[in-house]
Every structure is written in structure tokens, then in C-alpha cells.
Specification:
The protein is α+β, with helices and mostly antiparallel strands and about 110 residues long. Helix content is about 40%, strand content about 15%.
């Protein structure tokens, strides 16, 4: 069995796909995600976690050497996800605080 990816077939799979807009998973708030979705007119936005250095501290930086500068998409967020998050009882009580919640913390619950 031959293993390979014909370039033409792979490129055809990518044609017509919408651009996935990015947000920082560690610093973006729910309000930022909602604003970006409205501004770009897309259906989804991708929170990304990027590693800046090799210090090994658990702050979004890599735990193993050599991963500096590497970014990982940690999921997708759409308008429905945001509306469902904002409709929770604890968030309805304080919408301003809910919109200031970090995307990363919200997507894990």
C-alpha cells in the first residue's frame, strides 16, 4: 500500500473554507470574542494558546524545551456558544462580569 497525499487533492479540500479568525486564549474576554465575530462577520473564532519562551512556568508557556513560538488552537467559539454562556443564571445576574470572563476559562466549563 502506497502512502502519500497528492498535492492537488489536498488543495481541493481547502478551497472555499472560511478563514478561522484568531484570539489569544489566555487574554481574550468573552466580549472580545463576540466583538470579533461581529466585526469579521464569521461564524467561528479560534482561541489560540501561544508559547513565548522555555521557562517551564505553567502560564501558557511550554513544559518541554524547543516549543517556544509554537501556537496551538484550543477550540472554536461561535455566537451560539457565547449566547449559551451568557444565559447561565450566574451570568445573567452580572452580564458585565460575564463579558469580561476569559475565553479559556469559559470554554472549559
Amino acid at each position: 500500500m502506497v502512502v502519500g497525499f497528492p498535492v492537488n487533492e489536498i488543495s481541493k479540500l481547502c478551497l472555499g473554507k472560511p478563514v478561522l479568525r484568531c484570539l489569544s486564549a489566555t487574554s481574550a474576554a468573552i466580549g472580545d470574542a463576540l466583538s470579533a465575530l461581529q466585526r469579521f462577520g464569521g461564524t467561528t473564532i479560534g482561541p489560540w494558546s501561544c508559547y513565548d519562551d522555555d521557562d517551564g512556568v505553567d502560564d501558557g508557556t511550554p513544559s518541554s524545551p524547543g516549543e517556544a513560538g509554537r501556537c496551538v488552537c484550543v477550540g472554536k467559539v461561535c455566537t451560539v456558544d457565547i449566547v449559551c454562556f451568557l444565559c447561565r443564571e450566574e451570568n445573567l445576574a452580572n452580564l458585565v462580569a460575564a463579558l469580561r470572563s476569559k475565553v479559556a476559562a469559559s470554554s472549559s466549563t
